[in-house]
Design a protein that fits this description.
The structure holds 2 protein chains of 2 kinds.
Chain A: H1 2-6, E1 13-22, E2 25-35, E3 40-44, H2 51-58, E4 66-71, E5 74-75, H3 81-86, E6 89-92, H4 104-109, H5 125-138, H6 154-167, E7 172-176, H7 184-199, E8 203-207, H8 211-217, E9 220-225, E10 228-234, H9 240-248, H10 254-268, E11 277-284, E12 288-295, E13 300-304, H11 311-319, E14 326-331, H12 342-347, E15 350-353, H13 357-360, H14 368-380, H15 388-401, H16 418-431, E16 436-440, H17 448-463, E17 467-471, H18 475-481, E18 484-489, E19 492-498, H19 504-512, H20 515-525
Chain B: H1 2-9, H2 11-19, H3 26-45, H4 52-61, H5 63-77, H6 85-101, H7 106-130, H8 135-153, E1 158-159, H9 163-170, E2 172-174, E3 180-182, H10 183-201, H11 203-213, H12 215-220, H13 225-251, E4 253-254, H14 262-272, H15 284-304, H16 310-332
Helix pairs in contact in B: 1-2, 1-3, 3-15, 4-10, 4-15, 5-10, 5-11, 5-13, 5-14, 5-15, 6-7, 6-8, 6-13, 7-8, 7-13, 10-11, 11-13, 14-15, 14-16, 15-16
Classes of the chains: A alpha/beta, B mainly alpha.
Domain ABC transporter (chain A): 13-251, 272-515
GO cellular component, one term (chain A): plasma membrane
Keywords (chain A): ATP-binding, Cell membrane, Membrane, Nucleotide-binding, Repeat, Sugar transport, Translocase, Transport
Chain lengths: 526, 333
């Protein structure tokens, strides 16, 4: 690394001032990135910061609107991922992009097999298996090339994907969240392979949410926030704290006001009121260990935790979208019966805004008004249509209250930006007048303006007595809004405490288990 | 597990299954076992059922369906479906009969039939890939189109009187022991062999499997997705035209009501042959066995003489159901 500083080799990839716009959203705004051979370059940023977009811009999945891309000093613009691959830029995505029904060797060499008896002869399987075995061995991966890919765990499939990428003589290897589904041993194996490749002079782009891993493997990093580069640093000269501050940023005074409101409300919350929902030992095999959680009216409970810590799983259990194996869930003190289904939950005045807006929330072809009224119609049953007057009154009220733009409720949902779609989804649930609102990543991937509006709304709703569970990958957002904080890690609750005088570093300590965190964990367990 | 099945069936199968990962051969072995079992039961129950000539006639009677099922296997392996092949067969028989009637040379007749069938398939493939239309809908349109074109050519059945056609239709090769195998059956088996080679040992074939495994992955792996996807429908069209020629030879006529619903027989044969409807898993040999199983059911009923022919349909229905459920159970893990 320091060598690279003394006499930097020319960069393999230089992206300069690259911009990409989707509809009204500027996904990348004048982003520059340079990749040096023999270096692991981490791409850091929160969800929606533009990491994936940047990768897709480089590899020809998206066309860039402005800016230049130079490969080995030559200006280039790839039209397809295949073209990028031919130029030596290979990508391994988070979901393994191989075919499970073929063998490991076929997956590595498909499209580049050798034939027996000349061009028209059959594919030489023996040669294929031999080449695959050699290439796997050179990376220290121990897999039978003749076995079916789908019969191996995801970690091995991921390594095979890397082997395929490397085998195409990749000079640039992009790893998009390769470790999100791996355990510690598997990560160590992956890092071994990465180190070998680095020694061979490959430029590696590493995208990960796990800070420790980035600091272990990366040499250099570029930090993105809201589609802009906020810094390029050498890892050796950066602390985790600096990185997190760069990633999260400190913006907008509105938020400080929210902070205060949240903290004042904490004082009077809880204790004297009756819980609106309480979960006792609620758990489900493979998704969440037994967890206790009590919600009081008028409070926001923030759920903090990294990707895969069980955040979404908790919300789904609370809402009855997944059936718990253990534990009891009591809604508004009424008996200990379980919620059998989301429908049942809705009847008891629960509402759940899913993390996956596209797949589990929005009906793109229906109008904004229809999307808003779906929840209410569902809870009334289809035999009792909502009177037209009520419909338009409700839609009008909520369009205005949530500031949905464009303010035309007859437009199809797909013509709205992500932020406005999210507002419509919120409206859908608010119309049903829930007592408990479960929000899973309500601000992901939406622009900062809509984000603050939604945050403000959450605060207001709590003030009016609604109980809100707020889940977000952005710790700052969670801290800003919640009265109480629940920290999840590795699919279990490791801490719960009132949000008083906690800052991001404290939460990170709890999660990373560094000194302060351990003490906290013990306190929580006791 | 497959080893048990194999030893129960025959010793050499055990070697076959040890040769490769056994699980993917399981469905085909199941179909093979079923076929052998049915023939065994038939041989015990009815005189003359176990005669090898019964089996050879089975191939002759189902030659066209074998070829159709081969084309359908390509399509289903990519996760698609082709409903147009039955109509395509009828159209091919009519084109052949009409062009022969007006005196075209045989080579030209065959050429034009193969060309028209392939064109229909290619057109549907282009629609499916570039306009992202569901295969079900695109080929349903193709099915109506081809059937409609038949009526444009002729509403009546046209007999085929051509000498060459008749020679091929009745010609056969004699096997040791005095058994004989019709030319059309030989041809159908050749098609199976070529298709098996293409699927197992060419880039195109392996890409077909990759497409069935995951189309988006195949795209990101830099494989020729467009050419392959259009290609399988072109192949299915070509096979339908070949099947049409065989059917014309079998019936010596061209008629717009030929092969109504035959696409469903082909699909049933492919499914019974162990090919996964979601794509990515299956073998042409399985489809061949699937056709033979269907044919054996018919033979059964004709040997029995007391059973209504509708039992054929009922047994096919039950078999398809059993195989689809079995696949589901096998792949759910």
């Amino acid at each position: 690394m320091s060598q690279a500083e003394v006499k930097p080799p020319p960069p393999v990839v230089e992206m300069h001032d690259v911009s990409i716009t989707f509809g009204a959203v500027r996904a990348l705004d004048g982003v520059s990135l340079r990749l040096l051979p023999g270096e692991v370059h981490a791409l850091m940023g929160e969800n929606g910061a533009g990491k994936s977009t940047l990768i897709k811009a480089l590899t020809g999945v998206y066309t860039i609107d402005a800016g230049r891309v130079r490969i080995d000093g030559v200006e280039t613009q790839f039209a397809t991922p295949a073209a990028a691959q031919r130029a030596g830029i290979s990508t391994v995505y988070q979901e393994v992009n191989l075919v499970p029904n073929l063998t490991v060797a076929e997956n590595m060499l498909l499209g580049r097999e050798r034939h027996r008896f000349g061009r028209l002869g059959p594919i030489d399987r023996r040669d294929m298996n031999r080449r695959a075995a050699a290439s796997l061995q050179s990376l220290g991966i121990d897999v039978d090339p003749g076995s079916e890919l789908g019969s191996h765990p995801i970690a091995v499939q991921q390594l095979v994907a890397i082997a395929r990428a490397v085998d195409t003589d990749a000079r640039v290897l992009i790893l998009d969240e390769p470790t999100s589904s791996l355990d510690a041993d598997e990560v160590a194996r992956l890092f071994d392979v990465m180190r070998r490749l680095r020694e061979q002079g490959t430029a590696i782009v590493f995208v990960s949410h796990f800070l420790d891993q980035v600091f272990e493997i990366a040499d250099r990093m570029t930090i993105l926030r809201n589609g802009r580069v906020v810094g390029e640093r050498l890892v050796a000269e950066t602390t985790q704290l600096e990185l997190v501050q760069l990633m999260i940023g400190r913006d907008l005074q509105v938020l400080e006001r929210l902070d205060q409101a949240a903290h004042e409300a904490t004082e009077e919350a809880a204790e004297q009121r009756l819980p609106v929902l309480s979960a006792l030992g609620l758990g489900r095999k493979g998704s969440l260990e037994a967890t206790d959680l009590t919600l009081y009216p008028g409070e926001v409970v923030g759920i903090a935790g990294l990707l895969g810590s069980g955040r979404t799983e908790l919300a789904r259990l609370l809402f009855g979208a997944d059936a718990p194996d253990t534990g009891e869930l009591t809604v508004k003190g009424s008996s200990g019966r379980r919620l059998r289904s989301p429908r049942h939950a809705i009847d008891r005045k629960l509402a759940f805004c899913s993390e996956d807006r596209k797949a589990e929330g929005v009906f793109e072809e229906l109008s904004v008004a229809d999307n808003m009224l779906l929840g209410l119609q569902a809870s009334r049953g289809w035999l009792r249509p909502i009177p037209t007057a009520t419909r338009s009154a409700l839609v009008k009220e909520f369009m205005a209250a949530l500031d949905v733009r464009p303010a035309d409720s007859s437009l199809p949902m797909r013509s709205l930006s992500g932020g406005n779609q999210q507002k419509v989804l919120l409206a859908r649930w608010l119309i049903t007048e829930p007592d408990v609102l479960l929000l899973d990543e309500p601000t992901r991937g939406i622009d900062i303006g809509a984000k603050t509006q939604i945050q403000q709304l959450v605060a207001d709703l709590a003030e009016k007595g609604m109980s809100v569970v707020f889940i977000s990958a952005e710790l700052e957002e969670v801290l800003r809004l919640s009265h109480r904080l629940v920290v999840l890690k590795d699919r279990r609750k490791i801490a719960e405490r009132p949000n008083r005088g906690i800052d991001i570093n404290d939460v990170l300590e709890i999660i990373t288990g560094e000194p302060g965190g351990v003490a906290e964990k013990e306190r929580a367990d006791a | 597990m497959s080893t048990q099945v194999a030893t129960a069936e025959a010793g050499f199968l055990a070697r076959v299954s040890r040769f490769s990962p056994p699980r993917r051969y399981l469905p085909v072995l199941g179909t093979f076992a079923l076929f052998i079992g049915m023939f065994g039961v038939g041989g015990i129950r009815y005189d003359g059922f176990a005669d090898p000539q019964v089996f050879l006639t089975l191939l002759l009677d189902n030659g066209f369906l074998i070829v159709l099922a081969v084309g359908m296997t390509f399509v289903i392996l990519t996760g698609g479906i082709d409903l147009s092949v039955g109509s395509n067969v009828a159209l091919s028989t009519l084109i052949a009969a009409r062009t022969l009637e007006v005196g075209w040379p045989v080579a030209a007749v065959i050429g034009v039939v193969l060309l028209s069938g392939t064109l229909l398939g290619t057109a549907m493939g282009l629609l499916i890939h570039y306009f992202d239309i569901q295969p079900f809908i695109a080929t349903l349109a193709g099915m109506f189109l081809a059937r409609g074109l038949c009526y444009l050519i002729s509403v009546e059945s046209i007999p085929i009187e051509d000498g060459t056609f008749k020679t091929i239709a009745f010609g056969s090769i004699t096997l040791p022991g005095g058994y004989y195998l019709g030319w059309t059956a030989v041809f159908a088996l050749a098609v199976v062999a070529v298709a098996a080679y293409v699927l197992s040992s060419t880039r195109f074939g392996r890409t077909v499997y990759a497409l069935g495994g995951s189309e988006s992955s195949a795209l990101l792996m830099g494989l020729p997705v467009a050419a392959t996807k259009v290609g399988v429908y072109a192949i299915s069209g070509l096979c339908a035209a070949l099947g049409g020629l065989l059917f014309a030879l079998y019936t010596l006529s061209g008629y717009s009501l030929h092969a109504v619903g035959m696409e469903l027989d082909a699909i049933a044969a492919v499914v019974i042959g162990g090919t996964l409807l979601t794509g990515g898993r299956g073998f042409v040999v399985g489809s061949l066995l699937g056709v033979l199983v269907l044919g054996t059911i018919q033979t059964f009923i004709s040997f029995d003489g007391t059973l209504s022919s509708w039992w054929t349909r009922i047994s096919i229905g039950v078999l398809v159901l059993v195989f689809v459920v079995a696949q589901r159970v096998l792949t759910r893990r």
